Amino acid sequence: MPVRLGDLARYIGATLHGDEGCLVANIATLDTAEAGDVSFLFDRRYRNFLKFTAASAVILHPAELSACPVAALVTADPYLAYARASSLLSPPPAFDAGIHTSACIAPTASVDASAHVGAFAVVEEGARIGSRAFIGPGCIIGRAVRIGDHSCLSARVTVISGASIGQRCLIHPGAVIGADGFGLARDQGVWMKIPQNASVRIGDDVEIGANTTIDRGTFKDTVIEDGVKLDNLIQIGHNVRIGAHTAIAGCVGVSGSTRIGKRCMIGGGAGIAGHIEIADDVVIKGAASVTKSIPVAGVYSSVWPAREDKEWRRKVARFNRLDKEMIQRRNGARSGVNARNEGESL
Amino acid sequence: MPVRLGDLARYIGATLHGDEGCLVANIATLDTAEAGDVSFLFDRRYRNFLKFTAASAVILHPAELSACPVAALVTADPYLAYARASSLLSPPPAFDAGIHTSACIAPTASVDASAHVGAFAVVEEGARIGSRAFIGPGCIIGRAVRIGDHSCLSARVTVISGASIGQRCLIHPGAVIGADGFGLARDQGVWMKIPQNASVRIGDDVEIGANTTIDRGTFKDTVIEDGVKLDNLIQIGHNVRIGAHTAIAGCVGVSGSTRIGKRCMIGGGAGIAGHIEIADDVVIKGAASVTKSIPVAGVYSSVWPAREDKEWRRKVARFNRLDKEMIQRRNGARSGVNARNEGESL
Amino acid sequence: MPVRLGDLARYIGATLHGDEGCLVANIATLDTAEAGDVSFLFDRRYRNFLKFTAASAVILHPAELSACPVAALVTADPYLAYARASSLLSPPPAFDAGIHTSACIAPTASVDASAHVGAFAVVEEGARIGSRAFIGPGCIIGRAVRIGDHSCLSARVTVISGASIGQRCLIHPGAVIGADGFGLARDQGVWMKIPQNASVRIGDDVEIGANTTIDRGTFKDTVIEDGVKLDNLIQIGHNVRIGAHTAIAGCVGVSGSTRIGKRCMIGGGAGIAGHIEIADDVVIKGAASVTKSIPVAGVYSSVWPAREDKEWRRKVARFNRLDKEMIQRRNGARSGVNARNEGESL
Lengths: 346, 346, 346
Fold this sequence. Notes:
Chain A is an alpha/beta fold. The first copy, chain A, folds into 2 domains: 3-89, Udp-n-acetylmuramoylalanyl-d-glutamate--2,6- Diaminopimelate Ligase, Chain: A, domain 1 (3-Layer(aba) Sandwich), CATH 3.40.1390; 98-300, Hexapeptide repeat proteins (UDP N-Acetylglucosamine Acyltransferase, domain 1, 3 Solenoid), CATH 2.160.10. The longest helix of chain A has 37 residues, at 309-345. Chains in contact: A-B, A-C, B-C.
């Protein structure tokens, strides 16, 4: 669906230097763009491609304007403007309303007439699927689950009884929402399971990555607030609450009963201990281990950057001897003092 | 199903201070409990809620008895007593026996008449499903797999040919049991696959979390002994053996051919190297990397707690200069000695 | 299918010491092998089993030949020879061509007549399934996806629209190929999704483990080159390229837009930052965090081996005081000098 450059400029909040009426239909990188495409420049490494681009227009920073050989959409934040242009030009694919003949819908479930339910999907008793929701093939929607309007469960998503998903959510294949939390009590060396009676509540505009798991709560629901973005292979423990607009990269684990604030950013592979609180606007770098509460916004880390292995092992060995060396040095210093004293006493 | 307090006290091993005949039907936290609920106090942070609780009875430690405004179930281990009460009052939901019309059962498979097989489940040739077993929607039970009595595969669990699951197991969605181990040999820079001919044997009373994977063995089965509890997103490599009543939290990886003892506890995000042995009763803290065998029970760790990023980077840089500093100091000390010697020789 | 020892020796590249015509049909460990089995010895720990083995023949190193009580297949690389023998004697199970009656195949999809499509599999519009391909039960093959000849998607694999899989690939249950990459732009504290318009291209002879996820690219396809082997629960971000014959163990995360070279080996639980380049033939040890490009082949690490917890915590505390101590020592040394100077000036 082609868009006039003038309209695009207004939509993305940029100033147009060029023909208002020129039509663009796709977004493409500087080197691959053709006439009719809009391109973008926010990463300086691609600067050299600008002068050769065949795009009809380029989204860029004022500092790059003079070097732009085609129409320019100028803005102080070209990355954000690019994101807006891309989401305008690449909307999610349309789908047909209706329930696939192979889907299995319980008699007491309610599926909005405008929703789509795919092949081999299961919608259990009392579940409710909102308007224009997309339930892809192989999804399992448990008893009394609610799926909000315009939410998309792309394929093979499992949502377990009682969980609720807000509006405009996007959930990728393999995600499991509402499995039991890991609650155990020890009885003479044998583990006794603690029933997980609460569920999961997911806000609006949440994205959940492939094979990510979000456990149901014990007494209180696990809560994912509005606008949270979760990447793939993330584990969210029971009773956790994640504040609005927090983004978490892949392979992160959040242990049970922890609260994470709003607008936090958590890097890939980080681990967050249970029963702690993390303030709003905290940034946790990849691979960090958060072992206690973080009450103040800021950037936190504990990553050890990889090094050549022999050097690394020497360093670790040195570290492991540090205690001994410190003690020896202290003792050595003391015996030095003694020697001097003794010398003086001679 | 309401229970008399007297019966509940006996069941959980507590001493009742209050009316034997009082009925309770649910378990709830101190602040949300209503008449007819039993509540509990084992975490001192919730102590202040005790005096305001509307519960009919509270499970607590003798030290808290004097402050309890309602009937009390007194025990030295209120957490365990709570777990017992909760499992009595919140049994797993009942289910109807029978095979869903959409399920696909091979002619040579055997499904006990009291078992349940859900929508779109697949039970392949020679598989055997025990009595009162629950095979949820979308599960795939491979050739010659055995599922023990009273085991529950909640939904979308894959069990690959030849694996066996014991009795009273609980397996959450997305778990994959019996996929090939990662066995490769290098042939002039190209990887050759090593067939994984053995399978997976899972004992009784085992719980396996969502999207957890347990690989089949090469020659000997991968074995998960009785009472083991595995959280979500755990990877268990081929030929591994995990001892009875060991509990492993989320996002842990156990590499191939490793043996873990009985009653171990492994924290979230830990990694265990291959071909090692871990003794019984070992505790491994979250995010630790276990690189060699642990022959003695105890608590082990290698976690670096996250710190403010600038400070952390300064510390890492300091660490990386340590070698150099140590050498310089040693050389400096030596040249100091030399200088002195030279001074003396003057 | 029994094989003559003479033929086996030629196939695996070993020298036979024994009867050319002797038939073997299975491969087994030294202690479990029976007559008609071939066994192997490459791990010195199993050396003691050699003299008691009941195998018909043993694959071993020349150094072990004199101790071998049965026919010997002698080679300088017995591990590789074992892998070859095992793959000859344990071929993947045969399967019948054809589409299961319950599978859901779009009218415009094309499935080769020699391929197999299992129960409840979905093959969407325009998808193409190659000859002798195996699409197991519950797989979802998205729009316009291509599955190459002889590839096996064992069960419940999801391949999203536009992705292509080469020939002779093996993909394990729960893998998700082609879900959206984690592309977000921040707009006044709210995340805006960046459409992920490219797809995933997987070469020939690639193995992908259970519940592993490979994201689709933003503008360029995510590429997994020929012969790459990925274990379970791995996350591959968008726009990543992994070079031919690289092997990655379980629980590894590779962040977006990173390029990994050919023939690399990456240990379990490692994390690789985004937007970096790793050279060919790099080895990254388990649990390492790679935070910047590695331009030179070699072995890299940043693992901290777990230690007894009290000792570990003392070491971490010591480390955290290092800065302070260094400063104090420097100041102390200086004040010592001052004192001496002052002393001299007295």
